[in-house]
Amino acid sequence: MEKDAQRGARLEEKATRLTAGLVARATKLTDTIDTLQQDVAATAMEKRCFEVLQEHEQRTAPLRLAGLREVVEVQRQREGALQDRYKKLMATRADLLAA
Q1: Burial class (CB in 10 A: 0-12, 13-18, 19+), 64
Q2: Could you say which DSSP state residue 99 is in?
Q3: 16-46 pLDDT, tens per residue?
Q4: Could you give the CA distance from residue 88 to residue 81 in angstroms, rounded to a whole number?
Q5: Cα radius of gyration rounded to whole Å, the chain
Q6: Concatenated DSSP letters for 27-65?
């Protein structure tokens, strides 16, 4: 019986030695899979954030463009008024210099 126990222990040790590489590889692959799953989850979260940002931009872009067009139109009118004023002042200057 003791012989059987020793033989069983040797066989168990041999089996452990033979499968140690497979166990190590399985552990490494499990860690890699866990890391990749975390990366996929993080990337999915980032993608969703960018999709929400894109939706927000698509909704607000026309409002911003309208506001900028209004600012440009006000500036154009102001510039035109200043050009007219300059033209009148230059005409007045020319009249004063001619007199």
Answers
A1: exposed
A2: -
A3: 888 888 999 999 999 999 999 999 999 999 9
A4: 11
A5: 41
A6: HHHHHHHHHHHHHHHHHHHHHHHHHHHHHHHHHHHHHHH
pLDDT in tens, 38-84: 999 999 999 999 999 999 999 999 999 999 999 999 999 999 999 99
CA angle 66, 72, 77 (to 5 degrees): 125
What distance in Å separates the CA atoms of residue 37 and residue 73, rounded to the nearest whole number?
53
Q: What is the pTM of this model?
A: 0.55
- What's the token pair of residue 30? 């499990």
Separation CA 36–CA 31 (nearest Å): 9
Q: Which two tokens stand for residue 28?
A: 């490494």
Amino acid identity for residue 39 in this structure: D
